Amino acid sequence: MKKIIILGAGMVGKAMAIDLSKKHEVMSTDIDVNSLNYLSENYNIKTQVLDVTNEKELSKAIKPFDIVVSAVPGFLGLQTMIQVIKNKKNLVDISFLPEDVLHLDQLAKENNVTVIMDCGVAPGMPNIIAGYHNEKMKIENFEYMVGGLPIVRTFPFEYKAPFSPCDVIEEYTRPARYVENSKMIVKPAMSDTEFIDFDNVGTLEAFNSDGLRSLIFTLSNIPNMKEKTLRYPGHINMIKALKAAGFLDYETIKVKGKEISPFDFTSEILFKIWKLEPEEQEFTIMRIILKGEENGLKKEIIYDLHDKYDAKEKLSSMARTTGFTATAAVNMVLNDVFAKKGVFPPELVGKYPECFTYMINYLKERNIHYKKMEKVL
After folding, report:
1. For a FRET experiment, which of 118, 122, 127, 161 has its CA 20 to 30 Å from that of 345?
2. Cα–Cα dist 226/211, whole Å
3. CA distances from 67 to 4, 14, 94, 115, 335 (A)
4. 59-84: per-residue pLDDT in tens?
5. The overall pTM is greater than 0.90
């Protein structure tokens, strides 16, 4: 039994704590005591109120533990990662931090630690899958589309946020990078909308978002790569209207003598509207498509994920699919299935067949299935 500390007890942080507590000693931390009470009252999980921005307190909190899991909001991710590395602790991170952290590789090596970043459902599993197949085939096209949506569609947004609303809004504001003919293209988020049909779900709307992240640099041999976010049709027009009106601007404005950021204001308002209620039914949908040549044959390989709310454990699908990808990585590190030192995006973990197989099987054991379809073109 190992000792694990989880920074952040939101929906995903809770799911990870519950999963890991079945075989390990787990400490869950958060700045909000209400988030911690549910875990301490219902599971064999220790809790601690912790402000990760207090470097001294963070160092003290993580000292007794074998590995750290970071599930803090994206804007806190980078500094948290740096502090964990400097404290010589292995780390699995799902914070969706906006900065490029590959430059921390040398710092991690100097401190003899393993850091697996972006290790959620997406980014995360598409990277693992891309890394695995990149070793086996010459990939010419890689793309994936992903979304977490409520089953009940409620006007006007027909959306609920299964994780930090400010991180969701980042998907609508960060310029989207993709690769076309081996060149990086940058377009506004929410561009190139298209409708895509999914079995048992119906028609969804896909739009450009900045989900490729490290793949642009680590798998630069792939000439065409793209990532899109999925929503119910019509949702994006509403977000575009908010953006056009200035509600997503970061620069502060003065309102009745007070400085206020429209982005912060909008996040606060949308948090209430988008809050996923306890036991609310939702699902995660993802499609990963690889095209290329393997053993002299032109192939198309598709992985489909369609996961639903777990009524037994009372865990949202997004919390499960994101959190259990991370807990699989935690167990891989603890069991020395992956023991390399440095900072690793998931594709540099998935390239090893034993890691890819471990991930797929770990998720399958938790009833999360990536259905693979393969055809010769």
Report:
1. 161
2. 8
3. 5, 17, 14, 10, 12
4. 999 999 999 999 998 889 999 999 99
5. yes
